[in-house]
Design brief:
The protein is of the alpha/beta class and about 150 residues long. The protein contains 7 helices and 9 strands, in the order βαβαβαβαβαβββαβα. The longest helix has 13 residues. The strands form 2 sheets. It has a 7-stranded parallel beta sheet. A two-stranded antiparallel ribbon has the order 6-7. The relative contact order is 0.17.
Amino acid sequence: MKAMFKNTKVGLVLYDAGGSNQALSLIENLNLKIDYIDVQGPAISLTLDYNISFSEMGSYESWLQNVDLLITCTGWMSNLEFNSLQSALKNNIYSIVVLDHWISYKDKFTKNGISLKPDELWVTNAYAFELAKKEFPSIKTKIFKDYYKSKIQ
């Protein structure tokens, strides 16, 4: 996995706790290097629980044009993740969204009448994988071990 992102500038935007824990667990266990990070809300304290390296921290608006890839989630407590995804898609930046549970998949990608389709979805169990493939057959979907579940058990 690390080779896939070699020579790729990666940005990470997180807010909600559920998606943040899943994304951070994946990043930590896959040894992905993050170049830029924008964490707000509950994600701020959660980030400290993981061994994540990054080069620069700040608002995604200040660094988005410098990345080739954006990793984010689908939080409902804020528009941060949705807005960063929208900006990435608008600027032709490859986007990966980590899905953290099994409900309202389509609703997660629609706000204020705007629907988004990331380039790729990451999930951590077979049920989520099947649901994502059913709801979004045209979006590349990858399944990974649930490292977060392993961490909390």
